[in-house]
Amino acid sequence: MESSKEHGIEAVNQEFSRYEQVEKDQTYNLAEKEELDQFDTEYEIKTCDMNLFFNGGEEGKRQFAKDLGEALEGIGFAVLTGHGVDTRLYDEAEKKVTQIFEDIPREDRMKFEAQRFGSVNQGYFPIKETTIIHPDLVEGWVFCRRAFDLPGNRNASFKESDFWPGPGYEAFFRQIVEAHEGLILPIMQSILSHLGCDPHAYDQKLTKTNFGFRLNYYPPVSKQDDESGAGRMLGHEDVDLFTILPSSAVEGLQVLNRKNMKWIRLNPPKGSIILNTGDYMQRITNNRLPSTTHRVSKPRKPLYGKPRISIPMAVYVWEEEILEVLPCCGEPQYDPIKAETFHTRITSKYYGDDYTDE
What we know:
The structure is a single chain. The chain contains nine helices and 16 strands. The protein is globular and about 50 Å long. Helix 3 packs across helix 6 (169-195) and helix 4 crosses helix 6 (169-195). The relative contact order is 0.18. The chain has a single domain (2-353), classed as Jelly Rolls (Sandwich), CATH 2.60.120. It is of the alpha+beta class. Residues 1-6 have low confidence and may be disordered. The chain has helices at 2-7, 51-55, 57-75, 88-102, 106-109, 169-195, 223-228, 279-284, 339-351, and strands at 47-49, 77-81, 115-117, 120-125, 139-144, 211-218, 233-236, 242-246, 253-257, 262-265, 273-277, 294-296, 308-310, 313-315, 322-323, 337-338.
């Protein structure tokens, strides 16, 4: 990992290409560079109405699959409306996340410092320690299925205090997780339909599947951090099948358009959900659906004093599942691979070479 120590915020993604398990030819700076970055003001990331799937009959399902599939195949991102999730939960989540990161002392949060369980590094990440390759200006907390009182969490006995810094948080955030779980099969079935695959091919794998539900707290940007050149979250691609991300009240999310290497500022309306595909999906679709680069940049200076909250939910399969190219996606460019091996080979770039079992 010498390159990370030498280059830090000056590093480019290709310095870590040996960890990648899908094709990623694009080269970009991990931190935003105002003097170098260019922005795409013309490309519009498609909005897809899930109400078509839920209430539009077979014709509605076909239309939603077409809309979603074209959006994801084009850039790996879509905006979902009509999803049916009570958006008041998102408003309350911002308050709960703020409480956790502002009111609970750091020493109490550190009792839950992240460690690997299965494929995923779970627990609390202090600011600037989300990865070892870039000092992100974000604190995070990852909760996988085992941290929730849910069917299929694979815990012999669930105990809230093993995972959560206070009573009541698990019960509240479980409501969001359960609501998002209700979207997983409709999304995957629609993707598979678009690809010409059996729409139910992943129904069993994604029923009571594992996930990474992350609380992100981006504190106000200080003068010192602004001058350091660090970004709020480095440019990266998600490892998962797809990520369900409620839109944030504070701007910052940017998506890389690989076709022109310009960044797209994405700040959809409140209550909508941002959906993006990750490395698992690129692998099983034989590169048809890209794992698209994105980052969280600092907002415009008038918003420097406002924290940013986000609550992405990364959808995985369980570690023992095999990732293999779908039969409808042509001659495989990738060999079958165990999900745990695939996942940890990639995330070793964030956590160190000993993160994988190999």
